[in-house]
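Handout, section B. The chain below has 341 residues.
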Amino acid sequence: MKLLKKAAGVAAVAALAATTAITANAQTTNLRIQTHYAPETVSGKLAAQYIDDIQTMSGGEIQVEMFYSSSVVKSVETFDAAATGILDCDMTGGGYQTGKNSAFQFVGDIMGGYSTPYQQLSWLYFGGGREAAAPLYNKYGMELIGWWVYGQESFASSKPIEKVADFKDWKFRSPPGMETKIFEKLGAKPIVMDFTEIFTALETGIIDGADASGLANNVGLGLYDIVKYANFPGFHSMPSDHLACNKAVFDEMPESHQRIMKVAMEALALRTALTFEKKNAEAAAQLRAQGVTLSQWAPDELAKFRAAAQATWPEFADTPEAKALVDAHMSYLTQLGLVSQ
């Protein structure tokens, strides 16, 4: 009996020691992440799902303080805020950083390139995209975790936008970078402003329209409460929203946490593409019922835009990183039959 009690005691001590070892070895990763999306938009809710996923899959070892609507710094400043330690991760998009290096245009929004989110995502994972993008992010002290691509964007406008000629003298909110050059060539007057300023600028008439987001997100932002014209399906822009983290912070994370964040981004990418297939169609039906005019562009007008966009790419391939990315895109787009060399 004494032997049994002694054995039981030894087993209990061993179990306690094992538990203590597991506790001692467990690491907690605490991250501060900012997105430009408002929490009530479709993308804002998808971002919240990603945060819940990584916290749950890590058993609570990854903890995130999430900031929506660019509440800590402006959208364009999020990348630098993460690189310098004010934040840990940037959940906006590379397109905001084109002033830093034109190569960011080709991870942010190539414009006039891919037709679907699936093509664009396949470039990142299977077309040499991640390998071409990594040196760019690392150069600025950041690590690219992954993309989430919601598909082609739609305009919000106070007048019909049905063909290239309608861009003449059209004042609209544009993100920085290549888009401003393309639309200037087409006769428009792009005005670069922060994502959070769009609603007020439309409301006060500072701009005639906006390139903000996909149709469903535009509805979430309330843009069609102000202006009554849009185009659908979209064609001009398909931004790659990214998750990029401070490289030193990411490198210090346990490998299991790194893997959780990257795999969860792949899940977010698929969930985002599928969600917007449905949400954009629902938004289109809702807007038509509310009297908003949606225009679908004819193939010959789409071709005019694609030609103007692709003619502008070389102007932004002016750094080694940009050239590497353009070459990677062109090679893959050729494989897909979307461009001919």
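Note. The longest strand covers residues 142-148. Compare this with the example in section A.
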